[in-house]
């Protein structure tokens, strides 16, 4: 089977690179590598989500499928009194996310290897959950993320997702509407939709 960014142990040869970027007005430096999602630059969907997301300070935040960390690290920067948990199935991405948090001086994060939300304690709850879901892993995985996110949200908490219209935004919205009381599209840019669902 070919290696994907959602493989647990990428076997492709390392090809580390540095990405200098500005997110929410702050300069960040990220290290990426072969075998992780969007290794060449922060993908456009993640950027759109980062610019749109609302992270009240003091929030407990979860970043599902964190990759090398731009979404979760940005959330931790926006909520310095909050605590951000970042999870990814890809062990290489998890190591990079830890390294990138440290390098950017972000201390209020915990990074864990997890298949979907499986590594979390069943009682762990969050105020905000963020995901740029792994579309190529298939609809079943994406819908599982939504279901498990619902279970791990505090009452009144928010799930923020970014998804391309052509990659299944309508079916994603339908799935979210079957779970959440309030689902709204809060932004769109170049075919990417930002959906916010409240529990």
Automatic annotation (TrEMBL):
SUPFAM superfamilies xrefs: S-adenosyl-L-methionine-dependent methyltransferases (SSF53335)
A GO MF term: methyltransferase activity
GO biological process, one term: methylation
Top-rank taxon: Bacteria
Domain Methyltransferase small: 28-196
Keywords of the record: Methyltransferase, Transferase
Xref: InterPro entries: RsmC/RlmG, SAM-dependent_MTases_sf, Small_mtfrase_dom
PANTHER family: RIBOSOMAL RNA SMALL SUBUNIT METHYLTRANSFERASE C
Full protein name: 16S rRNA methyltransferase
Species the sequence originates in: Paenibacillus odorifer
